Predict the 3D structure of the following.
Amino acid sequence: MEKEVQREFIYCSGAATEVLKVGSSHLSGRDVLFLIIPGNPGMVEFYRSFMQTLHSLLGLPVWAVSHAGHCAPPDSMDIVEDASAAAKRDVFGLDGQVQHKLAFLHQHVPRGTALVLVGHSIGCYMILEMMRRDPELKVLKAVLLFPTIERMAQSPQGKVMTPLMCQLRYLLYLPLFLLSLLPHGVMARLVRLMFSSIPDLDPCVLQPSVEMLGSGDCPVNALYLGGQEMRMVLERDNVTIQKNLDKLLFYYGVSDHWCPVTYFQDIRRDFPHGDFRLCEKGIRHAFVLDAGRDVAQMVAEWTRGSLRG
């Protein structure tokens, strides 16, 4: 039986944040915690099946923390506590999102907790930055899934999306606003239509997709973060990778247009003793859409040795 998922909304770095928890919701400081850092958009409900499967296989607490402002908070919460302070800190930008994750750890996870960090897409970049900025974090393992950690704008998908997210972003705000005004039922049918080409779609992604489009704020914040990703994720952080090589596991997609196979070949050449794996199962970059349980099974297998150690 799948473990119940606890859903919480908090302010972290002054921004609305959603936290999903499977297993223990309170930590003693002697626990091992799996913490998921999502891709973009960073709505953690997309990872529900992935988290439940991981917990069922390992029996350890699995938490996920959304990106700042990548959630649909209850009506009693604004997207930010203080708009001017949030703007000053640029909490929705790439650097602000990294600080947001460190703030979450410092405020909500006891300092002695052993961490298994699982990043997806831009979440992998954030994990490397977290490890660089706070080398005292007790990281047992960091699993980086479909890692967008370098040359994002030069990737095949980046070449398409960079003009959209950098130069044309503001043109998308009006249609996104109008979309958010649609009745819930119409929005749900629209989302189903969007995903109709995916035969094995995980049903857990439907509701957060409706919530995201209906919120108005979330897609705007996702576009803003995406624009910064294109401009800021340039050179790979080889220093941090080398320093933590024994803790890192990278998993690349064989047909991933955000981090193509050439990036896998380059990093494996530069770090011959690292743990770099190339997907042999045809899993898409957005694995949560139809392969969350499969990827969770792999992550459980990869990390068991570190948990015993």
About this structure: The chain has one domain: 5-157+234-304. DSSP finds twelve helices and eight strands in the chain.
